[in-house]
Write a structure and sequence with these properties.
mainly beta; 2 domains; four-stranded antiparallel beta sheet; 0% helix
C-alpha cells in the first residue's frame, strides 16, 4: 500500500473539496451537524441540521433545508382486543391484551349478526358480512383507539357469512364463506380509507366456509374448512399486495379427515 504525505494543500484561498469520504488512519472524517430546535442561521450548502423539535434530520440544499425521511414499515397490531357481535347481538366489547381484566363496552355494530370476517390494522377494525336471519353483505368499521358505535364502510361483493380474513396492514382480504352454498371467492378492501365497497381479488382453489386464516406482511393463508358436504384439508396461499387466484400451499396434517372448525395464528419459527 502506498503512503502519501502532504504538508500543505493550497487552493489559492478557496476551500478544498473532497467529494467522497476522507479517511485518516482508518477513521472516516465526517461532516459535522447542528442539533437544535430552531433552524441554524447562515447555513452553508451541504450543512446538516438535526431538528430536535420534530426529530428530523435535514440537509441544506439549494438555499433550503430539505428533510431526509424514510417510510416506516406498516404496523397492523396493537394492545387492544375486541369481541364483536354474536347470536342476536350487536355488542362490541374491548379489553387490554397486555394485562388481565374484564372487557368493557366499546359500542355497537350497525346491526346484530354473527359469522363475520374480522380484521384490523393499528388504526381501524373492520367486520364484514355475517348472518342475522339471512346472510348479509354489510361491512362496518371502528377506530380501535377510541370507543363508539361502528360506522358503515361499504358492502361485500355478495352476502356472505363464515368467511375468514387476512391482512398485511394496508389491504384486508376475505376468503371463502357461505352464500347460497359455499364460496370460493376472495375479495378485498383497503384499510387506509374509511369507506368503499369490497372488490374481487380472485378465487380459492376449493370453495368452502368455516375455514381458518393467518397472514404476515406478504402472504395470506387459508386452511381447512367445510365444502358443504365434507371437511377439507386444503391449505391455500395468496400474495396480499397483488390480486389473483390462490395457489395450493399443501395439506393439513389430519389423518382420515380434515378440520371443519379450526383456528390459526402466526409467529416466528425456531
Amino acid at each position: 500500500m502506498s503512503t502519501i504525505k502532504v504538508n500543505t494543500i493550497d487552493n489559492e484561498g478557496g476551500a478544498v473539496d473532497f467529494p467522497n469520504k476522507l479517511t485518516v488512519r482508518g477513521n472516516a472524517i465526517e461532516r459535522t451537524y447542528t442539533s437544535s430546535g430552531t433552524e441554524p442561521s447562515s447555513p452553508s450548502e451541504g450543512d446538516f441540521w438535526y431538528d430536535t423539535g420534530n426529530s428530523l434530520l435535514k440537509h441544506y440544499i439549494n438555499s433550503e433545508f430539505k428533510t431526509i425521511s424514510f417510510v416506516p414499515p406498516a404496523t397492523w397490531y396493537g394492545s387492544r382486543g375486541l369481541n364483536v357481535g354474536g347470536m342476536s347481538s350487536n355488542a362490541i366489547d374491548y379489553f387490554d391484551i397486555t394485562s388481565s381484566g374484564n372487557a368493557s363496552d366499546f359500542g355497537n355494530l350497525t346491526s346484530s349478526r354473527r359469522g363475520m370476517g374480522a380484521v384490523s390494522n393499528a388504526t381501524y377494525g373492520v367486520f364484514a358480512g355475517g348472518y342475522t336471519s339471512t346472510n348479509v353483505n354489510t361491512i362496518d368499521y371502528i377506530t380501535v383507539a377510541t370507543t363508539g358505535d361502528a360506522a358503515d364502510f361499504g358492502d361485500m361483493t355478495a352476502v356472505t357469512r363464515d368467511q375468514m380474513s387476512v391482512s398485511n396492514g394496508n389491504r384486508a382480504c376475505f376468503g371463502g364463506g357461505s352464500t347460497s352454498g359455499d364460496a370460493n371467492k376472495i375479495e378485498y378492501i383497503t384499510l387506509g380509507v374509511t369507506s368503499g365497497n369490497a372488490s374481487d381479488f380472485g378465487d380459492l382453489t376449493v370453495a368452502r366456509s368455516q375455514l381458518a386464516a393467518t397472514s404476515d406482511a406478504t402472504y395470506g393463508v387459508f386452511s381447512g374448512g367445510f365444502d358443504f358436504n365434507n371437511a377439507v384439508n386444503t391449505i391455500d396461499r395468496i400474495s396480499i399486495a397483488t390480486t389473483g387466484n390462490a395457489t395450493d400451499h399443501g395439506d393439513l396434517n389430519k389423518s382420515g379427515n380434515a378440520l371443519r372448525f379450526c383456528g390459526s395464528t402466526s409467529g416466528n419459527a425456531s
